[in-house]
Amino acid sequence: MSSACSDTVVLWNPSTRKSRRLPYAAVEFPNQPRYFVNRVYGFGYDSVSDDYKLVRIVVLRGKEDDSVHYEVKVYSLESNSWHRVGKFPHYPYLNRVGGVLASGNLHWVVNEETEHGETNLIVSFDLGCEEYGLVAQPEFTNTKFHLDVEVLGGCLSLICNFYLTNVDIWVMKEYGVKGSWTKLISVPQPGVLRSFQNVRPIGYSKRGGEVLLQHGPLRLLWYDLKGKTGKSVRMRDVQELSQVTMCVGSLVSLKSRGGERDRKKKQEQEERNMGGFLSTGFKLVL
Hints:
By secondary structure, the chain is mainly beta. The protein has a domain at about 1-95. The chain is built from 1 helix and 19 strands. Strands 7, 8, 9, 10 and 11 form a 5-stranded antiparallel β-sheet that branches. A 4-stranded antiparallel β-sheet has the order 3-4-5-6, with no helix packed on it. It has a 4-stranded antiparallel β-sheet with strand order 12-13-14-15, with no helix packed on it. A hairpin with a 2-residue loop joins strand 8 (about 100) and strand 9 (about 105-115). It is globular. The N and C termini lie far apart (about 75 Å).
């Protein structure tokens, strides 16, 4: 990726083994001297329009005044096209992780400088109405930690990494309700986790009594919520884990469904017309 507009994006359905290369989307900033900083993505299902959408955020910084500029475009699988949406909220630092999908919203952690120091905020993007918001966080007693967001069991979750001390994982059991935040895990260091690098919750066990955690590039661990103990997961023939993600099987086609829907509507209309014609123009004689 040599420039801010040279990226190639491909959607892939691992269940059907089908893929689609997305159409090119130019970065349309005013002609002012800027340099490329980062490109961030998020993908999810929009239940309002029954569509799958990819969100692309391009971050550029001014060469002369060091100002930060964002461009946000959304790709629709339904129309197989990109469209521009409102500017990303103007925060100077946007984490490079992909957007985390929970309850029809994508989420990113941003940092804002205040008179009291750096503050972590969670920006959401509603795939239905395509608007931004801020997610209320728990009432922390200590805010000196590195914050990240994930999804666990379909719920938005927070990973609070207190360097060399402990890692806390919170779960928002009812989306959008601040009082529903629940601290699920608090693991001290040293302890069950040998490394606090890249601690991420992956999913629950079938009975819900354990959580699968990834910690570091090579380790997976089942964490017992009641016993507060861990059991390492051994994997054969795996040299390195970059990032482990839950995959839910789907047979959704990557082809644009607009033409298919138009044909279906046309067929239904013809059947209705034919039904009316038969009922008014002919009499059935037995």
